[in-house]
Amino acid sequence: MQPQNGTQSQPTRRQFVKTSTAAAVAAAGASSLVVPRGAYAAENNTIKIGLVGCGGRGSGAAVNACHADEHTVLWAVCDLFPDRLTDALAGLKQELNGQQGAKGQVLNQVDVPKERQFIGFDGYKGVIESCDVVLLATTPHFRPMQLEAVIRAGKHCFCEKPVAVDPTGVRRVLEVAKLAKEKNLSLVSGLCYRYDQSKIDVINKIHDGAVGDIRALEHNYLTGGLWTRPRQPKWSDMEFQIRNWLYFYWLSGDHIVEQHIHSLDKMMWIMKDVPPTRVIATGGRIQRTAPQYGNVYDHFNTIFEWDEKGQKAPKTRAFTNCRQYVNCNGDVSDWVYGSDGIASVQADAPFITGKNPAKIRPSKINMYDAEHIALFKSIRKNQPINNGVYMSQSTLAAIMARMSAYSGKVITWAEAMHDQTSYTLPKYAFGPHAVDPVVVPGEANKVGAPPVHV
């Protein structure tokens, strides 16, 4: 989720799309030359895309998917709210219908009549049934349930981050990832930096020893505030919370899970996806104290540790910070400190200093398009991609840090992996839904307070 206020150190998703669409379309044209016939494609080689979640991220994913492959069509959509679905479709038609293809042809990539527009908590089922590839971009709380339905139906999936908001959901997604592999399905994650060529190049160099032994990592995601939607008289508690899902930890996982996961995913990637041994974290809310901001924090500070076998001291430490403050300086950066050098990973043109200096070229294709180009290439070539393990582990790393900050306790990876916390409701319907209090570290065991591992 991109900030709307404050200083921002990285381009927005829309800026990425606008600056590199031409390159993506050219690459997509090349990708569609190899088209084996299969259950995913009609005789005209068109792949039908379904969108679940018509917010800004969902609309962006639909644009990226259509840019990635000219022979795709947005075929069905779903949202909980009719107004969001209607607004999203109008924007997508303007963006994707009537544009020029790689060979000069006119493209019309949105074809969603009323009968393929689905509303409500179960609407995603209609999209899955109608399409070949499903884009999951709903509120994170619903992702494990919806992803399982997609894979069980035998459909390929683009799954936005995070993949869950609690440890129970992470374990469910790990099982679904195994099923996707068994079914020969592609499961591509919205952790987009893993598809950014400049980040791939610099992290490959780090893995090849360019900075020597990794001593410490530093990850910052200091951004401005995000949007809010004022409560309307007709909205129930449930509707208000879902329309403002960022600010309720049962829906978003808190911003360390929803936004800072990008930083933590790069941390995990740099560490070759070896889980950290433990984490200690702090956090709270200083600016966002009004009721409209629900029960999430506005800042977190965390320290992850990886143990070295047989040693008392940790081999590597990662220091990570995130906040969402208005009218403050921002910093979105990732640094690797090694025995032989230092690497700046997040810069548009990453670089390494020290014994093995290097300058990395900026990516030619933006990462948001690149992840979808990879997805549709994998489908057409019948060479499935499965990002299920790393997208789950990076999500758990973020949840693990939240657990530590909320509880005031050191949390180990094993504790996080086996924790039984679940925010799943027995039934989903609009109506009353109480807001849990803001968690105060050290008070989580008091009567009436949330459980320790929220």
CATH architecture of the largest domain: 3-Layer(aba) Sandwich
Number of strand elements: 17
Integer tally of domains: 2
Strand numbers in spatial order across the main sheet:
16-15-14-13-9-12-11-10-17
**How would you characterize the largest beta sheet?**
9 strands, mixed
Global Rg: 22 Å
Low-confidence spans: pLDDT under 50, at least 5 residues?
Answer: 1-43
The CATH class assignment of the largest domain is Alpha Beta
- What's the CATH topology label of the largest domain? Rossmann fold
Task: Compute the separation of the termini in Å.
Answer: 22 Å
Q: Assign an overall shape.
A: globular
CATH superfamily of the largest domain: NAD(P)-binding Rossmann-like Domain
Write down the overall mean pLDDT. Answer: 90
The portion of residues assigned to helices is: 25-40%
Beta content: 15-25%
Count of alpha and pi helical runs: 14
Structural class: alpha/beta
